[in-house]
């Protein structure tokens, strides 16, 4: 059954992405897995090939980009379960002076009226990560609060900071304690260490960063990089197996990570108007960019070319990790690849 999935990836590599790993689980059992391509293929934006091109493997580690938002969401929800915060109280309780209309729920549903992005690295070139984070969470409201939907990395950075203050620990420690260790994962986390580097997929050519070649082993996202590699919206690395375990835990009701009623609230349509999908807490429901024929499924995509799709009705969890931004962003074909993998998952789930 893996042959079909393997062919799907092989047809997309290296045109849509230099490397890809996919996993499809049906009712908790891996029904198909496949890898294709090379973790490092190019040396620069011109597409110069490197001499050593390690192959993608099941234990390869990818920059998850915005799938990181789901980990931030789980951390906040676990803190809410323990009474450390309330999803509907003003974030001014932790961030004095902030607009009192801003709540964790509005941050997680992208209805806080905050700007989508902010290049804090360009605004504060000489500042340290702490000063940049303080400036990020002080970003003024610029749109309607409460809707319509406006996808905002700034909002998720703020959510991550609220988690740190409510949880009394740095965000990377909170993710490690409330996600990675709880699920017994090997690689999911921020800032992979030197021992992990040989398994990490390269991303974009960024000549402004030190070191030769394309970015590898540090976060691709400019804002997360400017914040020291740890942020609420991006920065987490993981293997496909790690992401599958995370998605399966949500599909099964939260396990040791969250209570079933908390997961139910997380994946409930929160009524955010103006999005091309329904928005839960952190998760997107029925996002046409990633679910393909799995209508009603929920999950998230990542700018680097990653996606997680969970379909509780069909008993499916679908993971696709790629480095589609290597050596440059703007490749064609990643949406088609996501849809093809989702279609294969639907076929495998059919009675």
Short note summarizing the structure:
By secondary structure, this protein is α+β, with helices and mostly antiparallel strands. It has helices at residues 2-12, 68-81, 104-108, 120-123, 129-137, 153-167, 171-183, 222-226, 240-251, 260-266, 334-349, and strands spanning 19-26, 29-37, 62-63, 189-190, 236-238, 278-279, 284-285, 298-302, 306-311, 316-322.
Could you characterize the architecture of this molecule?
It is a single chain. The protein is built from 11 helices and 10 strands. The protein has a 7-stranded antiparallel β-sheet with strand order 2-1-10-9-8-7-6, with helices on both faces. A 3-stranded antiparallel β-sheet has the order 3-5-4. Helix 2 runs parallel beside helix 6 (153-167). The chain has 351 residues and is an alpha+beta fold.
Write the layout of secondary structure elements.
Layout (H helix, E strand, L loop, with lengths): L1 H11 L6 E8 L2 E9 L24 E2 L4 H14 L22 H5 L11 H4 L5 H9 L15 H15 L3 H13 L5 E2 L31 H5 L9 E3 L1 H12 L8 H7 L11 E2 L4 E2 L12 E5 L3 E6 L4 E7 L11 H16 L2
Antiparallel strand pairs: 1-2, 1-10, 3-5, 4-5, 6-7, 7-8, 8-9, 9-10
Helix pairs in contact: 1-11, 2-6, 2-7
> Biggest sheet, open or closed, and with what strands and sense?
7 strands, antiparallel
Our Rg estimate from Cα atoms comes to 19 Å
Specify the number of helices. 11
Question: On the 0-100 scale, what is the average pLDDT?
Answer: 97
Q: Which structural category do the helix and sheet elements fall into? A: alpha+beta
Strand order of the largest sheet: 2-1-10-9-8-7-6
Q: H/E order of the elements?
A: HEEEHHHHHHEHEHHEEEEEH
Number of distinct beta strands: 10
N→C terminal distance? 15 Å
Approximate strand percentage? 5-15%
**Shape, please?**
globular
Helix share, percent: 25-40%
Which blocks of ≥5 consecutive residues have pLDDT under 50? none
